[in-house]
Amino acid sequence: MMFDPHDEGQPTYAVLRQRMITLATRRGADKTICPSEIAKSFGSHWRSLMPRVHQVADQLCAERKLVFEKGGISHGQHRPSGHYRLRIAPGNPDAPDAQN
Q: Domain span at residue 22?
């Protein structure tokens, strides 16, 4: 996944990816995070980050590191229409319950 290198001041794909995994892991396997939480963690320009956040979420869900949820129902690797939330995927080595 490539982003425009001219987007100065914008977090890179790798930084967004790590922040998303970190926030989901901290929240725990039984809770979800909102994509806007990731964007807001970078400051007041969060709205402009949302397209990138969605791209990273798509990739992490495709890799089965996170899963999409909407209305308490898991959508796995398929992003539902409208608002959604993210949960650390079961079996993800980053998940808190996998740290045995």
A: 13-90
